[in-house]
Amino acid sequence: MQLSVVITIFNELDNIRPLLAQVHAALEGYDYEVVYVDDGSNDGSVQLLKSLDDPHLVVVELRKNYGQSLALMAGIDVARGQYIATLDGDLQNDPADIPAMLRLVEQGDWDLVVGERVNRQDGAVLRRGPSRVANWLIRQLSGVHLRDYGCALKVFRAEIAKDLGIYGELHRFISVLASLEGARITQVPVRHHARKFGKSKYGLGRTFKVVSDLILMLFLKKYLQKPMHLFAQAGLLLFTVGALINLYLLGLKLLGQDIWGKPILILGALLVLAGIQLVTVGIIVEVLMRTYYESQNKRPYKVREIKRFGGVEVPVGRPSRVVRKA
Fold it and tell me: Are 270 and 246 in contact (CB under 8 A)?
């Protein structure tokens, strides 16, 4: 199968039929499936999906509401296509943009094509303003330079999509996760429409979640394979400052001054203890990282392509593509 379109929904009853019609119109002539993941809807969405007689439709019903990230992971796991497209189920993304994005992945050397909503049709205060701030923060801290990280319309190579660990609420950082897998990423302008039916699931309340997930992304991007560098450097810095404070106080004590009860004495002791704890945590996390890779026979690197000119192909790790030439 050429393409799987993964759509996650939670209470989008009125949007299902029109969105399916748009997908079918946009992908006429393609070999595709539409994987609808119902994330615990209680408005009759899943009943409607099950009642449709559509040979392209695959319905995944989750037991309860797990959130968009895990629903997206479930849809990607079920998808059978060589390429996977994702989009929201609220009619704000336009399926007509999928064919052009798919051609970029098929004909170009891209593993992921991300949509950029150039003319957004949602609220300026509650949606676009916070989104600009979030995009700037992600761009500066992650090193993945895109203009719009929040657009749900994306097209992947299947092997990249299925290797993403979209846990928690990391669907906002799919581009960063793909970058961690060594994906080549580009972004193209796409259409964006105002919501016609249903209620938006987004608001200002997600701001703190975005910041906390961004901290996790920063750790995964820079320190996943070398956690000791993060914890040991911070720990040694705190230990050194604490040790200098304690040496200073020791000098005062030797000169006959009373140091008991001084706030700086408590600070010095706390810094020394915090430094020791951070170094210890670094060692433990380093051991866990090695256990993570070695217990699953994984490698801390990704092979994009192996090209051999004759002989027997012996893949290393899990290569995405193998090219043989006689």
Answer: no
Q: What is the DSSP string of 104-161?
A: HHHHSS-SEEEEEETT--S-IIIIIHHHHHHHHHHHHHH----S-S----EEEEHHHH
pTM (two decimals)? 0.70
Task: List per-residue pLDDT tens for the chain, 326 residues long.
Answer: 899 999 999 989 999 999 999 999 999 999 999 999 999 899 899 999 999 989 999 999 998 888 888 889 889 999 999 999 999 888 889 999 999 999 999 887 899 999 988 877 665 555 566 677 777 777 777 778 788 888 889 999 999 998 887 876 777 788 888 887 788 999 999 988 877 776 665 555 555 666 677 777 777 667 777 788 778 888 999 999 999 999 999 998 888 888 887 889 899 999 999 999 989 988 888 888 778 777 777 666 556 565 566 554 445 444 445 444 44
